């Protein structure tokens, strides 16, 4: 087998976004596109010589081809070993775990997460660093810089490696270890949660429904919930990962997981419902007739962590992305531990987790996780809730009601306007940004603005600065609105409007969420004019 050096030219647009490089699949299928990005990544991390990597993904269309390219390129660049999930499958949290467990030099994750899959849908590729987390901006900027000057890439001339069977083979001088995608991850979960208590709960008649949305979590949920914990067969639905996710949009929110919502709000609702996304890092949690907002979920998890074996010794701190509601901050205050506010994207939690400054992290976008890996973790969050429910002997509704009574309630919602013309969306953000300095002290829809800024973050560990991370307008009653542009979309621009209103209680803890937020929604329209300027009557997605 010989190593071929292929001449290439820089390709525009290979800048990783909030979470890796995401494009239409056909863009990834263009000549040299994958190869350029992989070589740029290897160059940016100082080469691959002697290194070990993890490789896997959510199994979406084109993953099988990309996996073979990555293997041939790692071999040609001198890597010692690549650990691959069987059939290229690895959930994002499982990949993070394998990177850490095997003390590797990082890993490649093939996924566009919750974006649909297929030849006319989306593909994605992300590099995670040796701590198991998404590459920080210093690394993604270096990768992007490499893509702009790349002149050639190296690839081994070789046949495809059989990835359908667990075991070791070689390609050139490089070892390929094909592993069971589920086993190590499931074992990790057993160390964190009280599996005996959970088994007793299912044996006692507790019923749940887990919707894997034809994406990666099916095999994980089936092994953990049905096989190890004894949940009834059929608890996991849509449990087989399909290259096009069965035509579904594997995004666990009330809009896209509406089948689950219908069941949970219907007459025969089980005790608990949950869904995960394409690559298994997101979670939606639903009780009988009650939806748990992800921001509340983080707060409840933090407030009850002491009930869960893996966290019984206490948590060191909590971090949330800036647009996530401040519900978790109230819990941190009560626990006497620090709360951190970071930009959107899991990569910003890595340093805090590595330094032991925080144990739990969360985002409003259905992401919750802890220091057990360096990604958000959908199934972990589901097990956390199940363990809390079992320990407290309460329903989801009772747990939330108690939580709000104790800490007050942060009414919260996100309104997404998708596939907007990029110019329109950018102008909305730019115009509001230009007016931020004048807003404090003004009255909007009866509420006084107390602060307004464009969020900039200085990482407390390495001092790196990330500017322009979202416009926020805070009112004197702590209500808040945030506007930012998505960094994961592949079509036009997606504008996200985040809305929050704090009600300390004891009154008004049981309002309709959109009604409770109505003044903030009107204030956002008055300040940014999203509907007026886009001609849209309503958001495409409300979470
Ligand atoms: C979105 C979410 C963000 C999340 C990111 C990746 O980013 O808002 O909170 O970390 O997706 O999640 P953006 O830039 O589109 O708002 V995943 O499950 O798509 O890897
Ligand atoms: Co995801």
Structural write-up:
By secondary structure, the chain is α/β, with parallel strands linked by helices. It has 3 domains: 3-180, Alpha-D-Glucose-1,6-Bisphosphate, subunit A, domain 3 (Alpha-D-Glucose-1,6-Bisphosphate, Chain A, domain 3, 3-Layer(aba) Sandwich), CATH 3.40.120; 185-407, Alpha-D-Glucose-1,6-Bisphosphate, Chain A, domain 3, CATH 3.40.120; 409-542, Alpha-D-phosphohexomutase, C-terminal domain (TATA-Binding Protein). 33% of the residues lie in helices and 25% in strands. It has 18 helices and 27 strands. The strands form 6 sheets. The protein has a 7-stranded mixed beta sheet, sandwiched between helices. Strands 20-21-24-25-26-19-27 form a 7-stranded antiparallel beta sheet. Helix 2 (33-44) crosses helix 5 and helix 10 packs parallel to helix 11 (327-335). The longest helix is centred in the last third of the chain and has 15 residues, at 378-392. It is globular. The model has no long low-confidence stretch (mean pLDDT 96). It binds alpha-D-glucose-1-phosphate-6-vanadate (VG1) and cobalt (II) ion. Residues 18-19, 113-114, 277, 281-282, 321, 344-346, 363, 365, 367, 486-488, 496 line the site of alpha-D-glucose-1-phosphate-6-vanadate. Its EC number is 5.4.2.2.
- What name is given to the CATH topology of the largest domain? Alpha-D-Glucose-1,6-Bisphosphate, Chain A, domain 3
- Global structural class: alpha/beta
Count of individual helical segments? 18
Adjacency order of strands in the biggest sheet: 2-6-5-3-4-9-8
CATH superfamily of the largest domain: Alpha-D-Glucose-1,6-Bisphosphate, subunit A, domain 3
Classified by CATH, the class of the largest domain is Alpha Beta
CATH architecture classification of the largest domain: 3-Layer(aba) Sandwich
Question: Sheet bearing the most strands, described?
Answer: 7 strands, mixed
Low-confidence stretches: none
EC number: 5.4.2.2
Organism: Maritimibacter fusiformis
Catalytic activity: alpha-D-glucose 1-phosphate = alpha-D-glucose 6-phosphate
Cofactor: Mg(2+)
């Amino acid at each position: 087998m010989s190593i071929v050096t292929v001449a290439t030219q820089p390709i525009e647009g290979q800048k990783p976004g909030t979470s890796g490089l995401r494009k239409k699949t056909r863009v990834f299928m263009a000549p040299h596109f994958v190869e350029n990005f992989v070589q740029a990544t290897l160059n940016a991390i100082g080469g691959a010589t002697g290194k070990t990597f993890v490789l896997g993904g959510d199994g979406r269309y084109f993953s099988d081809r990309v996996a073979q390219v990555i293997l041939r390129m790692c071999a040609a660049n001198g890597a010692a070993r690549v650990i691959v999930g069987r059939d290229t499958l690895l959930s994002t949290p499982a990949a993070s775990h394998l990177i850490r467990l095997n003390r590797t030099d990082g890993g490649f994750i093939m996924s566009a997460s919750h974006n649909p899959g297929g030849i006319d849908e989306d593909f994605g590729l992300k590099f995670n660093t040796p701590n198991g987390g998404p590459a920080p901006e210093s690394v993604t900027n270096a990768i992007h810089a490499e893509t702009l000057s790349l002149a050639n890439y190296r690839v081994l001339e070789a046949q495809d490696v059989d990835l359908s069977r667990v075991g070791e083979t070689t390609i050139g001088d490089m070892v390929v270890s094909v592993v069971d995608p589920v086993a190590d991850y499931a074992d990790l979960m057993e160390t964190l949660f009280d599996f005996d208590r959970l088994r007793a709960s299912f044996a006692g008649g507790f019923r749940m429904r887990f919707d894997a949305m034809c994406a990666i979590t099916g095999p994980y949920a089936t092994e953990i919930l049905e096989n190890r914990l004894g949940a009834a067969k059929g608890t996991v639905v849509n449990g087989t990962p399909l290259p096009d996710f069965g035509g579904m949009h594997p995004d666990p929110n009330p809009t896209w997981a509406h089948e689950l919502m219908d069941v949970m709000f219907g007459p025969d609702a089980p005790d608990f419902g949950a869904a995960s996304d394409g690559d298994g890092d997101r979670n939606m949690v639903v009780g009988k007739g009650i939806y748990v907002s992800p921001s509340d979920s983080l707060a409840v998890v933090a407030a009850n962590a002491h009930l869960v074996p893996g966290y019984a010794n206490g948590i060191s701190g909590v971090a949330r992305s800036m647009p996530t509601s401040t519900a978790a901050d109230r819990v941190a205050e009560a626990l006497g531990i620090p709360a951190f506010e970071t930009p959107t994207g899991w990569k910003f939690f890595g340093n805090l987790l590595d330094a032991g400054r925080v144990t739990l992290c969360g985002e409003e976008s259905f992401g919750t996780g802890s220091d057990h890996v360096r990604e958000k973790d959908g199934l972990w969050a589901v097990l956390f809730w199940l363990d809390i429910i079992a320990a407290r002997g309460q329903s989801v509704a009772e747990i939330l009601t108690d939580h709000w009574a104790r800490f007050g309630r942060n009414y919260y919602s996100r309104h997404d306007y998708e596939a907007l013309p990029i110019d329109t969306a950018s102008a909305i953000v730019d115009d509001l940004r230009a007016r931020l300095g004048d807003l404090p002290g003004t009255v909007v829809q009866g509420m006084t603005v107390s602060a307004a800024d464009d969020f900039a973050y200085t990482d407390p560990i390495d001092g790196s600065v990330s500017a322009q991370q979202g416009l926020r307008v805070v009112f004197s009653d702590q209500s808040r609105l945030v506007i930012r542009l998505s960094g994961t979309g592949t079509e036009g621009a997606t504008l996200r409007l985040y809305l929050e209103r704090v009600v300390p209680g004891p009154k008004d803890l049981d309002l309709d969420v959109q009604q409770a937020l109505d003044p903030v929604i009107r204030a956002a329209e008055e300040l940014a004019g999203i509907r007026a300027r886009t001609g849209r009557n309503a958001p495409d997605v409300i979470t």
